[in-house]
From TrEMBL:
SUPFAM superfamilies reported for this sequence: Xylose isomerase-like
Keyword field: Isomerase, Manganese, Metal-binding
Protein name: Sugar isomerase
Keyword Isomerase among record annotations: yes
Originating organism: Siphonobacter curvatus
Gene3D superfamilies (alphabetical): Divalent-metal-dependent TIM barrel enzymes (3.20.20.150)
Annotated signal peptide: none
UniProt key word Isomerase: yes
InterPro entries reported for this sequence: L-rhamnose_isomerase, Xyl_isomerase-like_sf, Xyl_isomerase-like_TIM-brl
All residue ranges annotated as the Xylose isomerase-like TIM barrel domain in the record: 103-287
Single GO MF descriptor: isomerase activity
Residues spanning the membrane: none
């Protein structure tokens, strides 16, 4: 690893006085009980890094690679290990198959453990044809009119579960780009039924302690319909499948201006929210850094998450799958991921600050202005010193991006891997 723990300690020492000043000011404002309560939760909260987003992403027009990208799964794990050492909040990795097939599961699991990492949800891929694949997914996978294509897609998902079992993962995320490009192309009901039957077979292959996440997405460029198009459709599949099936919310997968926080609230209430893919967007499924465009929306989502999870007595850190799904076209992927994790944790901390009793009282009294004040006061409180303090206590860097830059870690990766290294993935 191009980063040693003494370098983190040294960096923190240099910046500790300035940090203390800000932290103590904030802690006095919040009171020690609130401060410690939020700190404890922040230290526990981990966000999984996607194996497919450690290299430079691209659009359909091109890809402008950086340098020093991880050339294989081992190097991807090393990159996530580096992120985790810097922020102690990225203690998990989510794999996409076949982009990242673990040939020796046990060895990969050990390698990850050496960095303090575990495996979050496994992702299958039936939205691309692979070089040696027998049948094509051009007209869909689980929805396909040809049973042989459906069987191929089902078997792929079962293979992904088996890879995940070897790694200690506990969930499978299924995202389908099944759908149609033109009106008339597809019988919606038959496509739904065929997809459901395929998912049922995959569900039957799940180990007892596994979950399956059905991810929805409203659109793809060139699409007229998607077969898992919105949370209603995903909820329908998840409900018909059974108690191990849940909906996965990817923040970029809604029609413009959708009220995602309301969707989240109801899915949680119905015990069908399984996990998250964090990213941000302005127009479509842009996969930009979490919190970079609509930070207030991210806060409002966390506000519902905290409220809903507390109502059901859930563990914030472990009862839902927290994952990033992003693509980095112009930034260093590692810096971008550090920024995403920071934004997610900031929104979480702000949501933890909301005075829920006062909020309910304002709602009961129809005191709209008071309710708005309560939310906005939490959102407008600068909790960054609290995040830094949580990192300090967890032996992470006070400022992860700052240290990453100070040590020129990208250059070290370029020296080790070369300028032309290209990662598999988006
Ligand atoms: C999709 C979706 C899936 C991700 C692929 C790469 O838009 O978000 O979660 O696996 O992209
Ligand atoms: Mn996603
Ligand atoms: Mn997406």
């Amino acid at each position: 690893m191009p980063l040693e723990s003494y370098q983190i300690a040294q960096y923190n020492q240099q910046h500790e006085v300035a940090h203390r000043r800000k932290f103590e000011f904030l802690a006095e404002e919040l009171g020690s009980e609130t401060t410690e309560r939020i700190l404890g939760k922040l230290i526990d909260f981990q966000i999984a890094i996607p194996s497919w987003a450690l290299g430079t992403g691209g659009t359909r027009f091109g890809r402008f690679a950086g340098g020093g990208e991880p050339r294989n799964l081992e190097e991807k794990i090393a990159d996530v290990g580096l992120l985790h050492a810097l922020n102690r909040s990225s203690g998990a990795i989510s794999l996409h198959i076949p982009w990242d097939i673990p040939t020796d599961g046990e060895a990969i699991k050990q390698l990850a453990a050496s960095y303090g990492l575990v495996f979050d949800a496994m992702n299958s891929n039936t939205f691309q044809d692979q070089p040696n694949q027998e049948l094509s997914y051009k007209f869909g996978s689980l929805q396909h009119t040809d049973a042989a294509v459906r069987t191929q897609a089902i078997n792929h998902n079962i293979d992904v579960i088996r890879y995940g079992e070897a790694l200690g993962s506990k969930s499978l995320t299924v995202w389908l780009s099944d759908g149609s490009s033109f009106p008339g192309q597809l019988n919606f009901r038959k496509a739904f039924q065929r997809t459901l039957e395929g998912l049922q077979e995959i569900y039957a292959a799940l180990p007892a302690d596994w979950k399956i996440f059905v991810e929805y997405k409203a659109f793809e460029p060139n699409f007229y319909s998607t077969t898992v198009g919105d949370w209603g459709q995903s909820f329908l599949y998840a409900s018909k499948l059974g108690p191990k099936a849940y909906t996965l919310v990817d923040l970029g997968h809604h029609l413009p201006n959708a009220n995602i926080e309301q969707i989240v609230s109801l899915l949680l209430m119905e015990e069908k929210l399984g996990g998250f893919h964090f990213n941000d967007s302005k127009y479509g499924d842009d996969d930009l850094t979490a919190g970079s465009i609509k930070p207030y929306q991210l806060f409002l989502i966390f506000n519902e998450l905290v409220d809903g999870m507390d109502t059901r007595g859930m563990n914030h850190a472990s009862d839902l799958g927290w994952m990033i799904d992003a693509s980095h076209n112009v930034k260093d992927p590692l810096e971008d991921l550090l920024q995403s994790v920071e934004a997610i944790k900031l929104a979480y901390a702000q949501a933890l600050l909301v005075d829920r009793l006062a909020l309910e009282e304002a709602r009961t009294n129809n005191d709209v202005a008071a309710a708005q004040e309560l939310l906005q006061n939490a959102f407008r409180t600068d909790l960054r010193p609290l995040l830094a303090e949580a990192r300090l206590r967890a032996d992470a860097a006070l400022n992860p991006v700052g240290l990453y830059r100070e040590l020129s870690l990208r250059n070290k990766l370029i020296e080790a891997r070369g300028l032309k290294a290209v990662a598999t993935g988006l």
